[in-house]
Amino acid sequence: xxxxxxxxxxxxxxxxxxxxxxxxxxxxxxxxxxxxxxxxxxxxxxxxxxxxxxxxxxxxxxxxxxxxxxxxxxxxxxxxxxxxxxxxx
Length: 89
Fold this sequence. Notes:
The protein is mostly helical and 89 residues long. The protein has four helices and no strands. 53% of the residues lie in helices and 0% in strands.
């Protein structure tokens, strides 16, 4: 049973880390390019060191600031907060 866990745990960590690395936005990846992180995770799958390094140093943690900035549309307003809607009443 222990031998099975020694194989499955690093494999599961590597699969999760690769999927997380692929889905992470490029501007949130730290220290190395995203492709290098993915290769590092895949090469070190038997030990799990690449996945652990990705979790702790490869990506920025904290809020992602989604919905802010010039590339995102503003959030929809409720009818009582929309001056144009109130003018049409």
